[in-house]
C-alpha cells in the first residue's frame, strides 16, 4: 500500500483517460477534447471524450462491484476513506494548483477548496460507522418489527465546474460511506481535478469498480448522462448545476424512479438593516460575493440595503471592491481570477449594460478587462438597482453587486422571497427580535445571520423551491444514499 503521506508532482496528478473498473482507459470512440486554462486560453491537456458506450462500461463496473462493497464492514469503508483523506491533505498544494489552472480561481482559494473537499471525506469516514436503524416498539405478541438502512445501489454523480474538487468529493464520500458504488461525470471545463481525486482514491485502496469517472465534452456528455438516466441499475442521481438541467434530469429519470438529490440555481438575497454593524456587513458581503469571482451558487445576487444606511454602506463597499487585485492565479497577490469562459463574461456584461440602461449607477468596475483576455471582468458595484433589471431575476454568476434600497422590514422580506429560487439568504442586524423574525420568514434552505461564510461539512447544504431538494454534508447528507427497509418477523410467541 502506498504510504498515505505520499506527495505527487502536479504532472503526476494530471490524467487524461477515463477511470473505469480501476483502470485508466481511453474513450471507446478514441476521441478526445481539450481542457484549457481560462486565464490564458492555452490547452492544459486533452482528455477522453466519452459517450453512452463509456457510460455503460462505467455502470457495468459499478454494478459488478456493488455487492462486495455493500457487504464490507462500515469500519472497513471508513478506513479506506481516511486513507483517501490523508492523501488529499498531503497533496492539497498540488491539487490547489490544478484547480486554479483549469478553473481560474486564485491559488489560495484553490488550496482552500482542496482542504474543504477533504473535510467531507473525513466527515463521512466517521459517519460510515453511524448508520443506525430502529427497533420498533412491539405492537403485537409474537411479532418483532425493525427498520434498517441499506445503500441505494449505483449512484451517478454529475458535478459543475466552479468547485471541481469540493463538489465531487461531497457526493462521492457519502456514497462510498453508505456502501454505494459510483459512476461520475465532472464538468467538461474542469475534469482534471476530478480525475486526480480518482487517482488518489485508487491509491487509498478504493476497490476497482467502486468509483468510476468518465469525461465528456458538452455534446457527448448529454448522451453519456442519458444512458445513466435510462439504466435501471443506476438507482440514484446526484447533481449540482442549473435548474433547467435539474428539471430535465428529474423528468428523464422518472422512468426508472431513481432517487434524486438536486442542488440547483440560486438568486440569494443579502439584506442590510439600518441597525446592522456596517463594517461587519461589508466584510460578510466581500466573503460571500467575491469568493471564486462570484461564481458560486450561494453568492449574494441581490443586496438590499435599508435607506437610512444605503449611501454609507455603498461607499464602504465600493472602496473595498475597487481595491481587489484582479490577476491570474500565477500572481500570488491575485484575489479575483478569470471567469470560466467567454460565455460567462457575455452574460455578466449583458446584465450590467441592462442595469445601467435602466438607471443603475456604476460605483466601481462595470467593464470588461480586455487587456487581460476575453474571460475577464472587473469587480463591480451598482447602486440604485430595481426589480425590472435582468440581474434581479437571473443569476449573474460573476463579480457584480447590485444594491437595492428598501424602507422597512416587511418590504425587504417580500423582495428577498420574490424569486422561484431558495438556496441561500443572508441578513445583518443586531436586533435579536428581528433576527428571529427574519430568519423564520426567509424562504431558503441556508440562512446566514451576521455571517457571510456558510459552508461546512457538518452542516446540511441544499435548497427549497426551484433550488432543488436533498442535502449534502452533515448527518443528513448520508440519508440521501440510503433506503429504509422494514423487517417484520413473526412466529416468536
Automatic annotation (TrEMBL):
Active site: 263
A molecular function (GO) term: succinate-semialdehyde dehydrogenase (NADP+) activity
EC numbers, comma separated: 1.2.1.16, 1.2.1.20, 1.2.1.79
Superkingdom in the source lineage: Bacteria
Record keywords, A-Z: Oxidoreductase
Protein name per Swiss-Prot or TrEMBL: Succinate-semialdehyde dehydrogenase/glutarate-semialdehyde dehydrogenase
EC class: oxidoreductase
Amino acid at each position: 500500500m502506498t504510504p498515505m503521506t505520499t506527495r505527487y508532482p502536479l504532472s503526476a496528478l494530471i490524467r487524461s483517460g477515463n477511470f473505469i473498473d480501476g483502470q485508466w482507459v481511453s474513450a471507446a470512440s478514441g476521441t478526445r477534447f481539450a481542457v484549457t486554462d481560462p486565464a490564458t486560453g492555452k490547452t492544459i491537456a486533452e482528455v477522453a471524450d466519452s459517450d453512452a458506450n463509456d457510460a455503460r462500461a462505467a455502470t457495468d463496473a459499478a454494478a459488478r462491484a456493488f455487492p462486495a462493497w455493500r457487504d464490507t464492514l462500515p469500519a472497513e469503508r471508513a478506513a479506506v476513506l481516511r486513507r483517501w483523506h490523508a492523501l488529499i491533505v498531503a497533496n492539497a498544494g498540488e491539487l490547489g494548483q490544478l484547480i486554479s489552472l483549469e478553473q481560474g480561481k486564485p491559488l489560495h482559494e484553490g488550496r482552500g477548496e482542496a482542504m474543504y473537499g477533504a473535510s467531507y471525506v473525513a466527515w463521512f469516514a466517521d459517519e460510515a460507522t453511524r448508520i443506525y436503524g430502529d427497533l420498533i416498539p412491539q405492537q403485537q405478541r409474537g411479532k418483532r418489527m425493525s427498520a434498517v438502512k441499506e445503500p441505494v445501489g449505483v449512484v451517478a454523480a454529475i458535478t459543475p465546474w466552479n468547485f471541481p474538487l469540493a463538489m465531487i468529493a461531497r457526493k462521492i464520500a457519502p456514497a462510498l460511506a453508505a456502501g454505494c458504488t459510483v459512476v461520475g461525470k465532472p464538468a467538461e471545463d474542469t475534469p482534471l481535478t476530478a480525475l486526480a481525486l480518482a487517482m488518489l482514491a485508487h491509491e487509498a485502496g478504493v476497490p476497482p469498480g467502486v468509483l468510476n469517472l468518465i469525461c465528456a465534452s458538452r455534446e457527448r456528455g448529454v448522451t453519456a448522462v442519458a444512458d445513466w438516466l435510462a439504466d435501471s441499475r443506476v438507482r440514484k442521481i446526484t447533481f449540482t448545476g442549473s435548474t433547467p438541467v435539474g428539471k430535465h434530469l428529474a423528468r428523464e429519470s422518472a422512468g426508472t424512479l431513481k432517487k434524486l438529490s438536486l442542488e440547483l440555481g440560486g438568486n440569494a438575497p443579502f439584506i442590510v438593516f439600518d441597525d446592522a454593524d456596517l463594517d461587519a456587513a461589508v466584510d460578510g458581503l466581500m466573503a460571500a460575493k467575491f469568493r471564486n469571482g462570484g461564481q458560486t451558487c450561494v453568492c449574494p445576487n441581490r443586496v438590499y440595503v435599508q435607506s437610512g444606511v444605503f449611501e454609507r454602506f455603498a461607499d464602504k463597499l465600493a472602496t473595498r471592491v475597487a481595491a481587489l487585485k484582479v490577476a491570474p492565479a500565477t500572481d500570488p497577490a491575485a484575489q479575483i481570477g478569470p471567469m470560466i469562459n467567454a460565455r460567462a463574461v457575455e452574460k455578466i456584461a449583458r446584465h450590467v449594460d441592462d442595469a445601467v440602461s435602466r438607471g443603475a449607477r456604476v460605483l466601481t468596475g462595470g467593464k470588461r478587462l480586455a487587456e487581460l483576455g476575453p474571460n475577464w471582468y472587473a469587480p463591480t458595484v451598482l447602486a440604485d438597482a430595481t426589480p425590472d433589471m435582468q440581474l434581479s431575476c437571473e443569476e449573474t454568476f460573476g463579480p457584480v453587486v447590485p444594491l437595492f434600497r428598501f424602507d422597512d422590514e416587511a418590504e425587504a422580506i417580500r423582495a428577498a422571497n420574490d424569486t422561484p429560487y431558495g438556496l441561500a439568504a443572508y441578513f445583518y442586524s443586531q436586533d435579536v427580535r428581528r433576527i428571529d423574525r427574519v430568519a423564520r420568514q426567509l424562504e431558503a434552505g441556508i440562512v446566514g445571520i451576521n455571517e457571510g461564510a456558510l459552508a461546512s461539512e457538518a452542516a446540511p447544504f441544499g435548497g427549497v423551491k426551484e433550488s432543488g431538494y436533498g442535502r449534502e454534508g452533515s448527518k443528513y447528507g448520508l440519508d440521501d444514499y440510503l433506503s429504509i427497509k422494514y423487517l417484520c418477523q413473526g412466529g416468536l410467541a
